[in-house]
Amino acid sequence: MTVHFAFLLHIYQPPVQIAPVIKQIVKESYRPLLTALRDHPEAKISLNINATLTEQLDDYGYHDIIEGITTLASRNQIDFTGSGKFHPLLPLIPEPEVLRQIKLNTETNQHYFGKVYQPKGFFPPEMAISEEIFPAIKKMGFDWVISSGIANSLPEFPSTFISEHAKTGTKLVFRDDMISIDCAFDKVNTVEAFANRIKYKRQDHDYYIILAMDGETFGHHVKHAIRNFLVPLFDALPNREDIQMCTVSEIVEKYAKGAKQIPKASSWSTMPYDLERKVPFPLWFDPSNHLHLEQHRFIMYALTTVHLAQKYRESMNKEQQQLFDNARNFLDRGIHSCQQWWASKRPWYSPDMILRGLSEVLLASVNAKRSIPESSQDIKDAMVLILDDMLKAQNAIIKTL
Asked: In degrees, to the nearest 5, what angle opens at C-alpha 110 toward C-alphas 268 and 18?
């Protein structure tokens, strides 16, 4: 009996992140992780890198990270996944924005990583899924999508077959939440402890386990995790037959398709009691959190202004088109999920990160209003009304901070 396991590591920094933080994470996590993989040619991972981070790595001169990822992908040690470029919570935005974020992510990462960036699978930011996002994932041609284990709606947890989405046919894979969390919080940190943990079924047939977590866990959040856990694990694997490292795509290819299902709306931070009270995205949209409600309203107003302005782009002069393009860019950046996450108070809270996100969204609406041709005064007037309501929402948020 062999347990096939895959690490899916998610690396991302918000577009408003400050340079010293990225420098620290590159030093502590990204660079040592790539070195560990490079030094162990049989080791492999699935990797989600949101393209906003790829751009930041380029902007700050960390070209060795981009080159290292490219080289490892060319050696089949990295299996890329698709995602949304600026890390929005996809179930909270309309389908045109979902499609746009996915396209931007693919285009940007292909620009930097070249032809090796050909993701088969899809990583929804924060593993946040709902029925509304599956048509977009299907349209973009992804073969599989990963969700948190809590999203599984079958009586049996899929570990010997690959489940399928009942409507789109997209293959579904689920994170083993408990083991992933134990690894992320340094509770499983030796080779034998890890091997025993993933062999918990004690069965006579092969099965698989998918472990998914922030890549920054290794070296940044848990300082010794690369040196004391990953490197010894990579050293030991060539000599073991009981556990075998794979990519998620290899597991999807290796195991037969099984039962269809409609997974539950959820994220990788959703708990059973959240589902009981029908709050699938508690860290980003909790109806009992006043900040979340005002943030969501603020973002929806901005989406409305930019989409209104887009209808007039052909009649804009060059200066107005540039203003609209600025609005579009600010909106793309502004809908990143971190501003809501930092407002969750569960237990995370940061007025600075909340305000940085708000600023990007407000700039989107201001530039959208300025881009409207003078001949469309009625639309300009409508924009003023929307901005009035946005400022009320912003004021409500600031007073709560």
From this structure: 60
Alpha-carbon distance of 34 to 396, in angstroms, equals: 44
Give phi and psi for 30, each to the nearest 5.
-60, -50
* pLDDT one-digit tens code per residue, 217-256: 999 999 999 999 999 999 999 999 999 999 999 999 999 9
Per-position DSSP letters for 221-245, written without gaps between them: TBTTHIIIIIHHHHHHGGG-SSEEE
In the Cβ-directed half-sphere of 397, how many Cα atoms lie within 13 Å? 30
pTM of the model: 0.96
Q: Quick one: residue 209, left, alpha or beta (phi over 0 = left, psi -120 to 50 = alpha)?
A: beta
pLDDT digits 0-9 by tens, 317-363: 999 999 999 999 999 999 999 999 999 999 989 999 999 999 999 99
- Could you give the angle at the alpha carbon of 15 between the alpha carbons of 226 and 108, nearest 5°? 85
**In whole angstroms, what is the distance from residue 170 CA to residue 142 CA?**
8
- Kindly state the average pLDDT of the residues 133-153: 98
Give 283-286 contacts, CB < 8 A, sequence gap 24+: 283/126, 283/340, 283/341, 283/344, 283/346, 283/348, 284/89, 284/92, 284/126, 284/128, 284/337, 284/340, 284/341, 284/344, 285/89, 285/92, 285/340, 286/344
What domains sit in the chain, N to C, each tagged with a CATH number? 3-276 (3.20.110.20), 290-400 (no CATH)
What is the pLDDT at residue 201? 86
The token pair at 137 is 């994932």
Dist CA 52 CA 14 (whole Å): 7
d(CA 213, CA 233): 17
Number of helices and strands (H, E) in the chain? Answer: 17, 10
Spell out a b/e string for 265-283, using b for 16 or more CB atoms within 10 Å of the CB, else e: bbbbbbeeebbeeebbbbb
Buried b (16+ CB within 10 A) or exposed e, 214-236: bbbbbbbbbeebbeebbbebbee
DSSP, collapsed to helix, strand or coil, labels residue 346 as coil
Handedness of CA 296, 16, 120, 257 (dihedral sign): negative
Whole-angstrom distance, CA of residue 105 vs CA of residue 162 = 26
Residue 56 pLDDT grade (very low, low, confident, very high; cuts 50, 70, 90)? very high
Query: Is residue 204 very low, low, confident or very high in pLDDT (cuts 50, 70, 90)?
Result: confident
Q: Under DSSP, is residue 84 helix (H, G, I), strand (E, B) or coil? A: coil
Q: What are phi and psi of 175, to 5 degrees?
A: -70, 140
Tokens 């201001």 map to which residue?
Answer: 366
